[in-house]
Batch of 2 targets.
Target 1
Amino acid sequence: MVQNEAHIIPANIAPDPVSGNTQKDTNTMQDNDTYSFDTIVDRHNTHSSKWDKYKQQDIIPLWVADTDFKVAPVIQRAIEDRMDHGVFGYTSTDDQCNQVVADYYQKKYACHVDANWVVWVPGIVASLSLAIRSLSTQHQQVLTPDIVYPYFHTTPAAAGKQANHLTMTYAQNRVRIDIDALEKRNAQGARVMLFCNPQNPGGAMYTRDELRRIDDYCEANNLVLVSDEIHADIILDKDKKHVPYLDVSAHALNNSIVLGAASKAFNVAGLACSWAVIANDDLRQAFKDEMHGIISEINPFGYTATLAALSQGDDWLAAMNRYLCGNRDYLLEELNAIKGLQMLPLESTFLAWVDVSELKLEDPCAFFEAAGVGLSPGSNFNDTNFLRLNFGCARSVLEEAVKRIKAALI
Ligand SMILES: Cc1ncc(COP(=O)(O)O)c(C=O)c1O
């Protein structure tokens, strides 16, 4: 990697040119066993969307949802082995690849998935579109959470449909669909309901009871639920458990499209690989038909990384979740001690959702950029009171960001 822009990383968090470690590494390496999430990897000159946004500017990028962590050694080795082969032609999956996904659901959630229910797609956003296009042929409306990852609002419109926003609640500081309001709502005109669990932004994980009520609503209204579970492996508290939608009931299994990927938890989003689990033969066929001539094959590195992550990545993932839990707790304490900021206590994701409304800023994002910290505007997710902060980075980077936020506000 080219190192000539290292000066943009503040001097006190820059890596040692020989070891690649920061001062902090040597202090905390023990805590993170063999994986040092404290190590700063210089991502300049790698076409990183996250880092290139503020090229040549002294702004710490804490916006788009990828982490700055180097991948698990098992993924690195698997990719190196594949690369050594030297031939990278068209690549397709076989039953064994699908079985790795099925085994993952069994091992992780004690939940049965048939290998032939798995459909590989280069990205989750593509699957949201495919689901809408394949299922809403006779229907104009698509139900979608109101405060959510932006593509939930734009993919229906791109498919010529209308995004019908579902009311959210912030009760108990968990951002989620207001199920009481949902149950009173007429879903007429919709066949598809988009759903995000864990919820981005906000990081709430829906409970099994909440999922059951949503499934009942879908059954009563003849809806297919498309469950985006891309953040499912990022769990910040040991006692919390993700419930895949397909595990909720026989109806949910037969009337859903469940989307998953290794991309967020294992930081391989750039390798463009995800899967859809579609148990219902008709829904799966319609989805596949919609892919024809539009969706390309997954690249060989995408498969390699995903299969290595699912089958051998548990140990690394547990260590990363512990590290992220530490980052979350650190941020909660620091940000909530600053007058005018209120960070919600998230259960999943590395994306803090911070209420800045008390500050009464005209352009909150620009304010913090001027302070040297690049965040995502809440308006992207349909709530202008908030900013989203990506804490999937070395603690020392976060500490520097907090220092800058304090300097701007205190
Ligand atoms: C909830 C959610 N879905 C989908 C995506 C993007 O998925 P992909 O890159 O596989 O299209 C993101 C990325 O941040 C996300 O947070």
Note: Residues 1-13, 15-32 have pLDDT under 50 and may be disordered.
Target 2
Amino acid sequence: MRAKEWSESGLVDFVNEVADLHDKGFLPFAIHLPGGNEQQLIDIFGEIGESDYVLSTHRNWYHALLHGVPKDSLLERIKSARSMFVFDRKRNFLVSAIIGGTPGIAVGIGVALKRKGSNQRVWCFVGDGIEDTGHFAEAVRYVDGFELPVTFVIEDDGMAVEASKESRWGTGKDLIWPVCVRRYKYKKSRPHIRTGNFADIETMKKTKKEPEHYFPLSNPIEYSTKDEKETKLSFKDAITNSMTKIGEAGGIFIGYSIVPGDAMGTLVNVPLNQKIETPVAENLMVGLGIGMSLEGLIPVVYFERHDFLLVAADAIVNHLAKMKRISHGEFKPKVILKTVVDDGGLFYSGPTHSQDFTAAFRNMVDFPILVPKNASEAISMYEFALSCEGPVMIVERKSLF
Ligand SMILES: Cc1ncc(C[n+]2csc(CCOP(=O)(O)OP(=O)(O)O)c2C)c(N)n1
């Protein structure tokens, strides 16, 4: 059932049904009920193709239903703590409950679709809270500049939780965005979170289960190599050869200091059309990687220093590392993060630029973070990264170059 078959009252009935379950204590979870924008969304979804991507937020139920996620399947997810984590690979439907999490990913999918010559589009629904973020601004600018098949729809009720636009920004005036951004205004008919009614606490206590029940953990992938061969290559040549091989396998290199710069000369053998020089927008760079990998490309995102990784921590820790678990394995982004730590050499770059966040990231993500000590390890670790079905971060120590 897609947009044409839904009526305003059908959507409202669905929400009422869930609200009733909440009040009876069967939903001991954070839930965000939609309401007040039924007709606007029915109209917009009339334009959205069945195979188009739809990206949504914590308040995603209407988007999911209108894009064809079956009502029973959505209800089942809501009853098992997944209201904010509705993913459906078959329908290209994905969400983030983190404000600003989706725009960069939408851009990555858009880049991949454009490279493939696909006629699919990406629709990224955002609240005016997401419009507040830098993540949104960098994504919009990229889509506008490269004319990507992505439309952002701002669902503007003027409020983020309980705060008006004016109280957040000093003015209620709307920003004027490029044409890839549409805005519709509405008034929410529901509170920001839950129903506004007290839920039956005793039933809630009986209903609630452990987090692993709702989101099973899978065994972390460990680095392994069958044949680490000794090599006479220098560390830099080993990295360069590895990049050449990843390029031959179709890898797309994303970041800055790539064209020109070649990531400290290591991408010299990679064809130009597999190198994307990005703006200095690290979160967007990883969003690009995530989105492109969802369309089957092999993105390698390059960071020339570790302090810059922190700017992309949302995309790396909250999205790249978590999407497989929160989507119950429906979406498995695979991005290789090629990172450099400036740990020596003649050009000391000071306390910020020489930081090493290997240990910090190992505490935050469950994918392999590998630090080659020599040329042969560099070769096997990049071979592993290429064959691994999930993300891998490689840390190249500059002193070895
Ligand atoms: C990065 C981040 N900061 C804060 C929050 C907490 N939070 C959840 S919803 C929300 C407001 C969202 O407002 P808006 O985007 O307008 O969406 P609406 O809830 O109005 O649909 C906030 C601040 C979050 N989820 N992510």
Note: Residues 58-59, 97-100, 127-130, 157, 159-161, 192 surround thiamine diphosphate (CB under 6 Å).
